[in-house]
Amino acid sequence: MAVKGLGELDRQYDGSKLRIGILHARWNKKIIDSLVEGAVKKLKQLGVKENNIVIETVPGSFELPYGSKLFFQQQKEKGTPLDAIIPIGVLIKGSTMHFEYICDSTTHQLMKLNFELGIPVIFGVLTCLTEEQAEARAGLIPNKMHNHGEDWGAAAVEMATKFN
Fold first, then answer.
1. How many C-beta atoms surround the C-beta of residue 79 within 10 A?
2. In Å, how far are 14, 60, 78, 110, 146 from 36, measured between CA atoms?
3. pLDDT per residue over 106-142, tens digit each?
4. What's the angle, vertex CA 15, arms to CA 161 and CA 87, rounded to 5?
5. Side-chain half-sphere exposure of 64, counting CA atoms within 13 A
6. What positions carry a catalytic annotation?
7. pLDDT at 157
């Protein structure tokens, strides 16, 4: 059993002045929907206004890094810049090397975006060996694990407020 989330630390951060983007893949819809719901729930609990939570989609997890960059630029050009982005995806191992390549490249590119964009880009990609593991981490299996989307929402608020 994994340690549950960020604990009590998330209570000291006020997200009321933040604008947070959530960009999610469309693969594994049931799991993704739960993770997005968890992130939104936590963002609201930490004071982020509903109209300051912007949600957009891309086809899959591989598209999250480039999509996040375009999403950031689009919002900035509209005059509604984002304070943090939570790219959300789910990768589940299959019988080929595809999983490893997508996990590795997506992870590295999302990490680089933190420095390129100058805002927090939270790693919201589950990389699981089985669908059951992904469902557990999305909070879909009662008493198994918590919804990791909540952790990502808390991390976005903490990182966007702590260092600004």
1. 6
2. 20, 15, 24, 18, 13
3. 999 999 999 999 999 999 999 999 999 999 999 999 8
4. 80
5. 36
6. 98
7. 95
Q: Which residue has tokens 């918590």? A: 146
Residue 56 backbone dihedrals phi, psi, to 5 degrees: -140, 165
**Cβ-contact 52, 14 below 8 angstroms:** no
Q: How far apart are CA 22 and CA 92, in angstroms?
A: 21
Q: Which of 153, 115, 125 is nearest to 62 (CA)?
A: 125
Give tens-digit pLDDT for 70-111. 999 999 999 999 999 999 999 999 888 888 999 999 999 999
